[in-house]
């Protein structure tokens, strides 16, 4: 986003990407005629994505991305705001003894969804131009500001972890798990409980998530920007304003926007070589502050190519499906065995994978060209712990672990929601938190930046202060992306990219 808007403004831009393609956690790849999204499975606008696309004039066709939620043999389709009641009924049928508590929780969900309606109810002003969009400012933004002034304090009171928040209403751990286990650990209540509203916003770009990246890459190239892939930046010299890649080639900069892992930025600076003692100190302070901070959850993803017509899946649920095979809840699997031996870990995995919630994405159900005719590609993932995966690698059974988990996921889906898939598998492979860490360079393979378990989270988390979130203590170096603000995700990465670009444009005027 930064590169695109800087190129749009006529600046000389160099984008360095360590992988062979751009996009990071926004990506689509092809294997034998099946297209899979390796990162985010669908997009939500949040007042950011579409204004960005409009401002750049990108031609991307989106289709609605319908979400379903399922527990055991029951599935509901999230079609409109009334789906909250269908969700309430679903929960009440599974936990009849908690019916009244579920009613109370539903009241809270509806309230929070209304707050989020306000928060994301406008095109983000960062993508508006006071002259070009004058009418929109007067008719939409000004009245919105009044509503937002009333709503913002209510949202900021809902920062506590969603499970703690819901414990005020129910003590049933299974119920708490079913509502919360597909969110990151300690996800703030306002973020988690607004999700049914966000589900309604999800859209899918034809050609897959990678289409957005492809169009942005074309835009940057067509506007004089330079993109260098396979270019990993290994060193930043803030005094001489130089970055150096893995081949030893250096590039000078007037302004640097660091849009990758934040710990890496500070690791890449050799403070011994920084002459200015004050600069050395602020860089070291920041590096020390974030050194032990952890990334958010990561994911284990199974990719399946199946000799089954998409129609089979369409009858069961929509093309983006949050499915939990058991109402028991994953707490029953016990804590993650971070000091366990292989036998203990395997036993835990067996329990965990039968109880966790799967995010199932079926690209061909949104775009018929995403798989060969009559066949279906499935992307099945569960949030998964980076440290456990690392331990398994250290214990020397990482490849066997992947095979083991793949088999358990397939078995769990076979005996519950998708009978018959096992015999139809044409190809299967998986990615783990280690894959995520390696390909994106993100700490702990985190898929949305800083963990909510950090106390405090080392990033700005107040929306009114977001303009400041891109600042670093290093002169002429800005940050953007998922480590810049919390809670993060694709819209925040885009938004902070735009804010950083605007700041640079202002400074270089
Ligand atoms: C399975 C999954 C589901 C998700 N679901 C959602 C969702 O529903 N909603 C939502 O909002 N978000 C979701 N996300 C998160 C969202 O995709 C990310 O938060 C967002 O895409 C992060 O973008 P980013 O550009 O900040 O960082 P990244 O995508 O991590 O990009 C960083 C880039 O920097 C490159 N890089 C790293 N180090 C270097 C270096 N030294 N030199 C050069 N280049 C380097 C990397 O290769 C990468 O391309 C999901 C992510 C995943 C994986």
Salient structural properties:
single chain; 509 residues; alpha+beta; FAD/NAD(P)-binding domain; Polyamine Oxidase, Chain A, domain 2; 3-stranded antiparallel β-sheet; 18 strands; binds flavin-adenine dinucleotide
3D architecture notes:
- The structure is a single chain.
- This protein is an alpha+beta fold and 509 residues long.
- It has three domains: 2-25 and 209-294 and 449-507, FAD/NAD(P)-binding domain, CATH 3.50.50; 75-201, no CATH class; 297-440, Polyamine Oxidase, Chain A, domain 2, CATH 3.90.660.
- The chain contains 18 helices and 18 strands.
- The chain has helices spanning 2-8, 49-56, 83-94, 99-119, 134-156, 162-167, 173-180, 189-192, 195-201, 210-222, 262-267, 277-291, 310-316, 342-355, 386-395, 398-414, 433-440, 490-507, and strands spanning 14-16, 28-31, 34-37, 62-64, 67-71, 74-78, 203-205, 226-228, 233-237, 242-245, 250-252, 256-258, 298-306, 320-324, 358-361, 376-384, 425-431, 477-479.
- The strands form six sheets. It has a seven-stranded mixed beta sheet with strand order 6-5-14-15-16-13-17, sandwiched between helices. Strands 9-10-11 form a three-stranded antiparallel beta sheet, with no helix packed on it. The chain has a two-stranded parallel sheet with strand order 1-8.
- α1 (2-8) runs parallel beside α10 (210-222) and α1 (2-8) runs parallel beside α18 (490-507).
- The two termini are 19 Å apart.
- The model has no long low-confidence stretch (mean pLDDT 96).
- The protein binds flavin-adenine dinucleotide.
- The site of flavin-adenine dinucleotide (FAD) has 31 residues, from α18.
């Amino acid at each position: 986003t930064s590169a695109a808007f800087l190129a749009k403004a006529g600046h000389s831009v160099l984008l360095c990407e360590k992988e062979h393609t751009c996009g990071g956690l926004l990506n689509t790849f092809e294997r034998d005629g099946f297209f899979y999204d390796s990162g985010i499975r669908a997009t939500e606008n949040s007042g950011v994505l579409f204004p960005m696309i409009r401002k750049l004039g990108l031609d991307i066709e989106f289709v609605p991305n319908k979400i379903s939620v399922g527990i055991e043999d029951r599935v509901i389709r999230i079609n409109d705001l009334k789906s909250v009641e269908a969700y309430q009924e679903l929960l009440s049928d599974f936990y009849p003894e908690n019916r009244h508590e579920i009613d109370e929780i539903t009241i809270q969900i509806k309230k929070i969804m209304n707050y989020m309606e306000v928060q994301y109810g406008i095109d983000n002003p960062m993508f508006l131009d006071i002259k070009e969009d004058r009418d929109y400012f007067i008719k939409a933004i000004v009245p919105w500001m009044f509503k937002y002034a009333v709503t913002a304090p209510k949202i900021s009171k809902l920062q506590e972890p969603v499970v703690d928040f819901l414990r005020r209403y129910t003590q049933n751990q299974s119920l708490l798990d079913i509502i919360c286990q597909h969110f990151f650990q300690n996800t703030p209540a306002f973020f988690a409980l607004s999700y049914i509203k966000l589900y309604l916003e999800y859209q899918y770009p034809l050609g897959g998530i990678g289409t957005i990246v492809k169009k942005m890459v074309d835009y940057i190239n067509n506007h004089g920007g330079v993109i260098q892939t396979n270019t990993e930046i290994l060193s930043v010299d803030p005094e001489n304003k130089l970055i150096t890649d893995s081949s030893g080639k250096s590039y000078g900069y007037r302004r640097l926007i660091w849009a990758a892992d934040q710990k890496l930025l500070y690791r890449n600076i050799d403070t011994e070589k920084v002459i200015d003692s004050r600069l050395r100190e602020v860089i070291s302070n920041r590096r020390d502050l974030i050194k032990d901070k952890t990334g958010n959850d990561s994911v284990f993803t199974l990719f399946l190519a199946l000799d089954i017509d998409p129609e089979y899946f369409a009858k069961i649920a929509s093309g983006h499906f949050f499915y939990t095979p058991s109402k028991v809840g994953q707490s029953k699997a016990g804590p993650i065995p971070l000091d366990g031996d292989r036998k203990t870990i395997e036993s835990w995995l067996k329990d965990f994978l039968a109880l966790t919630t799967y995010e199932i994405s079926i690209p061909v159900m949104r775009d018929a060209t995403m798989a060969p005719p009559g066949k279906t590609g499935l992307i099945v993932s569960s949030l998964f712990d980076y440290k456990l995966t690392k331990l398994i690698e250290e214990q020397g059974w990482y490849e066997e672990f992947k095979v083991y988990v793949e088999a358990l996921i397939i078995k769990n889906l076979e005996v519950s929601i998708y009978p018959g898939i096992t015999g139809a598998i044409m190809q299967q492979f998986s990615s783990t938190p280690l894959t995520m860490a390696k390909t994106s360079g993100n700490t702990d393979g985190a898929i949305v930046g800083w963990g909510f378990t950090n106390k405090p989270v080392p990033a700005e988390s107040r929306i009114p202060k977001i303009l400041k979130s891109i600042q670093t203590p290093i002169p002429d170096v800005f940050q953007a992306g998922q480590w810049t603000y919390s809670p993060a995700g694709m819209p925040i990465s885009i938004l902070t990219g735009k804010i950083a670009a605007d700041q640079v444009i202002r400074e270089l005027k």
